[in-house]
Specification:
7 strands; globular
Length: about 300
C-alpha cells in the first residue's frame, strides 16, 4: 500500500507537470508474448527513425534482458538485477521477475528522475518478455502512468507461429483486447516477424484480422478437425466467436498490420499510429511526411 501511494502521488505530480510541458514526446509501449520480437522492434525502429532524422528515444523495462541492441535513455537493469534478486531472495526466474517488477515500482521516483526532462520526437518502451508482468501487475500500471504522462499508446505484437492457427490467432486477439482494457491505452496490433511466413500464410492471417466471417469459418473447421466430440468442438468455436462478436459490437477493431524488424516493413505504420493520436511529428522536419508515405 505504501508503494502504491508513493507511485500514485508521483503519477499525479507527473501528470500536472506534463500538462504544463507540451514538449513531452509521445510514448509507445511495445507489448507481446515472450519471443514476439519486442526488443528487435525497438532496435529496428530506433535505427530506422534515425535514418529519417527522427529523434526516437528508448527505454528498457525488462530486468531479465541479457542484452539490448538499442541505446536506452533509461535501462531498468541499472536499478534492478534479476540475478541479484534471484540470489538475495532465493527465487526462481519467474518469481524473481514478479518481485523485480514490484521493486522497480518502489523506485518509481528514480525512474522519474532518469527520464524527467528528456526531449525527442517519440519515446519507445521495451517491456518485459512475459506480457503478464507488464499488463497484470498493479505496480506496472503505475509505471505506465509515470512514463506515459497521458500521451501513451500500445503496440501489441502477434507471434507469427501462433498466429497460423485460427485458435492461436483468436487467443492473441483476446489477449490484446485484455491488455488494452487493463491499461486503457490506444492499441494497434502488428503481426511480428511477418517475413518468416510464406506469402499465402501471411495473406490468410491478415484476412482473418479484416474479415470476421472468414475467421469464424476457419474456427469451426479447426474445432471440428481437432475434436471427436462434435458438440464440444461446436461449443469451443461458439465461445471464441461470441468473444469476437462482442469485440466487434464494442467497436474494438482488431485489424493486423504486417511487421518485419529485419526488413523494416511496417515501421512507418508504427510511427503513423502514434502521429495519428498525438500529432506534431509530421511537421517537425521538412519532407518528413513524404518519407513516411514513401515507406508505406
Amino acid at each position: 500500500q505504501c508503494v502504491r501511494r508513493m507511485v500514485e502521488e508521483l503519477t499525479m505530480s507527473r501528470l500536472i507537470m506534463s500538462a504544463q510541458d507540451a514538449t513531452a514526446p509521445p510514448v509507445i509501449f511495445v507489448v507481446g508474448t515472450a519471443g514476439a520480437g519486442k526488443s528487435s522492434l525497438v532496435t529496428a525502429f530506433q535505427r530506422w527513425a534515425r535514418f529519417l532524422e527522427v529523434d526516437a528515444l528508448t527505454i528498457n523495462l525488462d530486468p531479465g534482458a541479457e542484452r539490448v541492441h538499442y541505446d536506452p535513455e533509461f535501462d531498468v537493469r541499472d536499478l534492478i538485477s534479476l540475478s541479484d534478486v534471484m540470489s538475495e531472495y532465493d527465487l526462481g526466474p519467474n518469481g524473481a521477475q514478479i518481485l523485480a517488477a514490484d521493486l522497480v515500482a518502489a523506485q518509481a521516483e528514480d525512474v522519474f528522475q532518469e527520464i524527467d526532462g528528456i526531449s525527442g520526437d517519440i519515446l519507445v518502451v521495451d517491456t518485459p518478455g512475459q506480457v503478464e508482468l507488464f499488463a497484470f501487475r498493479e505496480a506496472s500500471s503505475h509505471l505506465v502512468e509515470v512514463i506515459g504522462q497521458g500521451r501513451a499508446c500500445l503496440i501489441f505484437l502477434f507471434d507469427p507461429m501462433l498466429s497460423q492457427t485460427p485458435s492461436g490467432f483468436v487467443s492473441q486477439m483476446l489477449l490484446s483486447s485484455i491488455v488494452h482494457f487493463r491499461l486503457g491505452l490506444p492499441t494497434a496490433n502488428f503481426l511480428s516477424k511477418s517475413d518468416l511466413l510464406e506469402p499465402e500464410v501471411l495473406e490468410r492471417i491478415i484476412e482473418w484480422g479484416e474479415n470476421l466471417d472468414v475467421l469464424e469459418a476457419a474456427l469451426y473447421e479447426e474445432s471440428a478437425a481437432q475434436s471427436m466430440d462434435a458438440a464440444h468442438s461446436g461449443q469451443r468455436a461458439e465461445f471464441a466467436i461470441g468473444q469476437l462478436r462482442m469485440m466487434q459490437h464494442a467497436s474494438i477493431q482488431p485489424g493486423l498490420i504486417p511487421l518485419s524488424s529485419e526488413e523494416e516493413e511496417g515501421l512507418a505504420d508504427v510511427l503513423t499510429f502514434a502521429q495519428s493520436l498525438f500529432g506534431g511529428m509530421a511537421d517537425s522536419r521538412d519532407g518528413f511526411q513524404g518519407d513516411i508515405e514513401h515507406e508505406l
